Amino acid sequence: MTCFKPPSRPVIEWDCVTFAYGEAVAVEDVSLTIRAGELAAILGPNGSGKSTLIRLALGLLRPLSGAVRLFGRDAVDFADWDRVGYMPQVIAGTWRDFPITVAETVAHGAYRGISPLALFHRSERPEVVEALEAVGMASFRGRRLSQLSVGQQQRVLLARALVRQPELIVLDEPAAGIDVSGEEQLYAVLRDLNRERNITIVIVSHDIGAMLREANTVACMNRTLVRHGPPHELTSAEIARLYGAPVDVLVHDALHEHR
Ligand code: ADP
Ligand code: MG
């Protein structure tokens, strides 16, 4: 039996949002709300406006029309960045020439305008160690970032996004460039942060199977919002239409194995 649960408060609201880069409309008339406690996936083919939607939510872009609110504030005016963790995409090889350690990378997430020299001292602070523990990377804290696998680097960047104890974490293509086991470890950490710490998580991904398994709401983008709802309501046919025929097989497999 299901009991009535009142909807939780909105964390990100896109309200009739349109955005264009010059003449090219990237996001058209999108209305979508992500609520506290959700693990929300944004799916869609390349160029469908997923990253643009995220940039709008983080106030990095201003909508052409409509409104974007983050924790109830206009996203462009939002200033309370301690509440939001953002995990950028890692491109393999990015850290090759950086002599920075794991702990220093995470401490950088806690940096609030003091001298960068102080980073060294901050890197042993409890919140840094705790964030690394949350992603299972505490024992790596003295290692150089360049010596880690891409999957491990991703988890360190997630720790950096976590260090200020945000209420919302936004990840744009977090699984790009990592292998299946690295991906599974990353999703396990995200699942735990969502369920145990009640952190709202928004993931942009092209990994449809993983998102159908992990997310509790799925938004399908194709410049406009094609679909929004729980993953089990999404049919293979709808996803195939979103991406094109070859994905149908993949989705079928995912639904078959995990549902
Ligand atoms: P996705 O993340 O789904 O791949 P994006 O939001 O990055 O899609 O891009 C949506 C559309 O906007 C694409 O057609 C893309 O080429 C275009 N676009 C993205 N960023 C820029 C930019 N900085 N300047 C011009 N066009 C852009
Ligand atoms: Mg993108």
Can you walk through the features of this model?
It is a single chain. By secondary structure, this protein is of the alpha/beta class. It has a single domain, classed as Rossmann fold (3-Layer(aba) Sandwich), CATH 3.40.50. 33% of the residues lie in helices and 24% in strands. The protein contains 9 helices and 10 strands. The strands form 2 sheets. Strands 6-7-8-3-9-10 form a 6-stranded mixed sheet, with helices on both faces. Helix 2 packs parallel to helix 5 and helix 8 runs antiparallel to helix 9. The longest helix has 17 residues. The two termini are 20 Å apart. 40% of the residues are buried. The C terminus is likely disordered. The site of adenosine-5'-diphosphate (ADP) has 11 residues, from strand 2 and helix 1.
List the keywords.
single chain; alpha/beta; Rossmann fold; four-stranded antiparallel sheet; 9 helices; 24% strand; disordered C terminus; binds adenosine-5'-diphosphate; binds magnesium ion
